[in-house]
Amino acid sequence: MDIQPELHPPSPADDIVIRAARPSDCDGITALGNMPGYRWGTLRLPYQTPEATRKWLEGINPATNVSLVVEKDGQIIGNGGFERHQGRRAHVAYLGMGLHDDFHGRGIGSRLLREIITIADDWLNLRRIELTVYVDNAPAIALYKRNGFEIEGTHRDFAFRGGAFVEAYAMARIKP
């Protein structure tokens, strides 16, 4: 019998589930994206609507995108994934992820990132994963470095956030 396991099945001492995002998650993902801490680390604008989130979720192309959510007790507390490039950059994907403001420092982001990397490495044979992270986001930078990402450069005046321009690092991981 061919049984396919969940990406991250819960263990008896663990109520975290990592699974594919679906359009019915639009309210939870919207609430997550509207959290001040979550939004601070992204390019999102304040007051994202559930309708905009649903449109984005419905437009995800499973041939080029992976979109996961992290659930705890039925609440979405994180999301992440990647978009695979096409053509001569088909070996590359661009990563994005974030976590609920109240769940940092518990290893949840590490688990989500490992799931994303596993899909990239073991299922899609991607060679390179790229991301951009604000230079003042030390916890995220440390997480990415622990998982094989390296800083490749700095984007000056990358984004306008909180009334000022901020820099961001270009980071990438080459499959070992």
UniProtKB/TrEMBL annotation:
<dbReference type="Pfam" id="PF00583">
    <property type="entry name" value="Acetyltransf_1"/>
</dbReference>
<dbReference type="InterPro" id="IPR000182">
    <property type="entry name" value="GNAT_dom"/>
</dbReference>
<keyword id="KW-0012">Acyltransferase</keyword>
<feature type="domain" description="N-acetyltransferase">
    <location>
        <begin position="16"/>
        <end position="176"/>
    </location>
</feature>
<keyword id="KW-0808">Transferase</keyword>
<dbReference type="GO" id="GO:0016746">
    <property type="term" value="F:acyltransferase activity"/>
</dbReference>
<comment type="similarity">
    <text>Belongs to the acetyltransferase family. RimJ subfamily.</text>
</comment>
<protein>
    <submittedName>
        <fullName>GNAT family N-acetyltransferase</fullName>
        <ecNumber>2.3.1.-</ecNumber>
    </submittedName>
</protein>
<dbReference type="InterPro" id="IPR051531">
    <property type="entry name" value="N-acetyltransferase"/>
</dbReference>
<dbReference type="InterPro" id="IPR016181">
    <property type="entry name" value="Acyl_CoA_acyltransferase"/>
</dbReference>
